[in-house]
Amino acid sequence: xxxxxxxxxxxxxxxxxxxxxxxxxxxxxxxxxxxxxxxxxxxxxxxxxxxxxxxxxxxxxxxxxxxxxxxxxxxxxxxxxxxxxxxxxxxxxxxxxxxxxxxxxxxxxxxxxxxxxxxxxxxxxxxxxxxxxxxxxxxxxxxxxxxxxxxxxxxxxxxxxxxxxxxxxxxxxxxxxxxxxxxxxxxxxxxxxxxxxxxxxxxxxxxxxxxxxxxxxxx
Length: 219
Description:
The protein is mostly beta strands. 0% of the residues lie in helices and 58% in strands. The protein folds into three domains: 2-44, no CATH class; 52-126, Sandwich (Immunoglobulin-like), CATH 2.60.40; 130-216, Immunoglobulin-like (Sandwich), CATH 2.60.40. The protein is built from no helices and 19 strands.
């Protein structure tokens, strides 16, 4: 859509057309219930087209750089905004996210006649899903290394089964109830090496299945 502006007498009229060039248009005004019209030649300017591409739309906070390449046409001036904040007037934009989350990127493209257009894109930054298992813990009521649970980043939830050396299930837990060295009945389990089987879920719904061994050492 292309906007045109015409002035006659003290009136300012705005119309729209899909064609550019010098052409004749009828402009109608209404004032105090009296309607009149006039014919005038007006110059119609084409609007710019705003467009850009991104090297990616999702990444992890460990590698938070985005590159946005301007694909606009019919424009000679640009303005970038990210989450509503001014991000510069360069043709292309390099952006390094400072935290995880959703970022809305907006490009405004202007031509010499003052017409403009916009294009927008959402990009997202995640925490990398990493999981590892400690190989020992030392429950002893000293607030140090009291529980066993999977460690890592972007962990949202987990379930785990603990087995003794004979393959007997001695405990089941989750993120609210990690293994504290007690069995189902709240009785202390002896110092020993136990087998652990876990399912871990990330904050993006990814799942990891792990198994290993844990050495329970009482102080």
